[in-house]
Design goal:
heterodimer; A: 22 helices
Chain lengths: 483, 80
Amino acid sequence: MDLSSTLFLFLFLPVFLLIYLVSAQRLRLPIVLAASVIFLTWGTKMALWWLGGILISGYLAGLAIARAKEKGAHSPIWLWVGVGVNLAILSFFKFSAAYGAAGFVWLHLPQDWVAPAVGLAVPIGLSYVTFQMISYLVDVWKGTTSAEKNFVAFSTWLLFFPKLISGPITRYKPFALQMEQLNPSTEDIAAGFRRLLAGFVKRALIANQLALMSNAVFNLPTANVEPKFAWLALIAYTMQIFFDFSGYTDMAIGLGMMIGVRLPENFNFPYIAQNISDFWRRWHITLSTWFREYVFYPLERRRFKWAGQQINILIVFLLTGLWHGFKPTFIVWGLLHGFALTMESIGFGRWLKQTWRPIRHIYALAIISVGWVFFRSNDLRFSYWFFRRLAGDTSGLKLLPFSVSTPMPFIEPSFILALAAGIFFSLPVSSIWNQIRAGLEKRQVNFFFLFQIFEDIALVLLFILGLAMLLSNSFLPNLYAKF
Amino acid sequence: MEEMIAKLAAFIAEKILRQPKRVIRPDEALISSGLIDSFSLMDISLFVEDSFGVRIEDTELNAETFDTLEQLAKLIQGRQ
């Protein structure tokens, strides 16, 4: 179930909220868990088996790690078992999704074993669930969090429906502390509702409109596209992926606020980054934090003397690429970012810091955009030809029927509007707006009351418009759900 | 405490920023301001471990745990 679906917004959410808010506080945790299980199994029953397996094995591994530590064990055997199970399941599904049955030939396994497993849909939220579980097991081993004995609390953290499909990746301890008191205030519920609507509007009115152009180009079997449309598609995709994913995160955080749980932020205006290191402090923050804390720093403690840090950066970004999918395009995307970061970690980074600020922005946006070409292309051959189109190469272009190239060669006004809105709102205008808002709330209480009403009306109108467009298009990709 | 801050400031200016003459104020934001990035945080952590015998966990290497020399020195003192 997608958070933007009418089923979720007009049936699941109202029913859940009604039951949740009228229930006694002690019942709220099991209610959230029951809702999360229903959310998970709705339409994809297989996901419950796989995620349930990860949940139970992780729960038992956590207890086993804690018991081994109590007995003074020095070898983290249960940690490796727990982490191994998660990585094996994640790798299997990523590999199967990328290569199908042909990918397993080299294993020489009996056909009876491979056939039923290959072709299974990747369970929703698998990448997020496995990474959260690994962080929990490592934290228990390090002693920074205790092994949870309460299975309901543990399951609620892992399967919490607002963050189940696309994060944000949430560590156990900060979440567990909040589960002890699930009692959202009226202000929390109102603020959460506003955030949910804003996230929906970002996805439906910006990401969804831009997707029509970027999909038309990137879904072609070859990069048979005029240079101007290649540029438009690239800019459109750059904005689409940000507004789709950050909109989804806004919805997740808003839902969390309504339940009384503060989920971590995942974005901080990534396209104003001044270098790639800055970009990764602003883009998918919870994933980059996870890789930094659970992969990069442990590698850094065992750094090679020669180019050790650069090798570690490349390893981390190779893994970041693989996390998105076991495809060469994701690997190249990850390594491109890794390579830029290795350059920034040596003299180039110091030189860059001293250059004119617009140059730093241009550098960062260039790397990010080139990266998105690999990220979005189905294969490297498409990427190669797409870059040639961007450079103005029109050789071998064929005229496609409109049914294939639509909406090209036309550029709809709604696309231009969505693109302009995307570029405008990717700048930190909402931060400035929030500052003005906070100032009004403090100094002009009566005026703020009116201001808030108008702001809410505008948000609801945008939501209705977004809903109308969503229903007319019946199309809303959640780009990060497939990871 | 002042001696500890001076030692940390000298290490950061010389080894991390490569600007030995750079003066870092005890209350100057290091991480949130972008002065120090995540590439250098492990170097600081290992320096703290070697010089003061205090381990800072990998999950603590962020601006929430310490963002200034003052906060870092307090963290070290609290664990010594």
